[in-house]
Amino acid sequence: MRRLLVPRSIRDAMVARARASAPEETCGILAGTLADGQRRVEAHHSVENVADRPRSRYEFDPREQLERLEAVEAAGHEVVGFYHSHPRGPAEPSATDAALATWPDRSYVVVSLGDDDEHALAGETPEGASVTAWRWTGRAFEREALGVVDSA
Questions:
Q1: pLDDT at 2
Q2: What is the dihedral of CA 149, 35, 95, 83, to 10 degrees?
Q3: Catalytic residue check, 25
């Protein structure tokens, strides 16, 4: 099984951003290295969600996305994948996520705050956030192992 390694600090930052953005979805780019079926995240770049329905989908601001992609390249990193949140949904890609996925062989991380509206809107869930990783094959999402490491 392919594996995505994410530093604890980056995982925590994605969860914090998801909580701060609730009830709207948040999104961003994951940068790092790709080697031998293992992906290692070394940086994350938040991107403004400009979707017409930001409570149930995400769309990168095109100009900001280009700026972030240029920053990834300038740092000598590769695009490892992307992340977005599901403020009140499961920690798995939705049918909409699959229909809009465009980067084959990249990781898509989903940060779920759960389905409890009261807690999700307050930025917390009774059990805490769930973070999962999925690889887009070009046709479907496949689950990836997610390893949380102590440093980048």
A1: 80
A2: 40
A3: yes
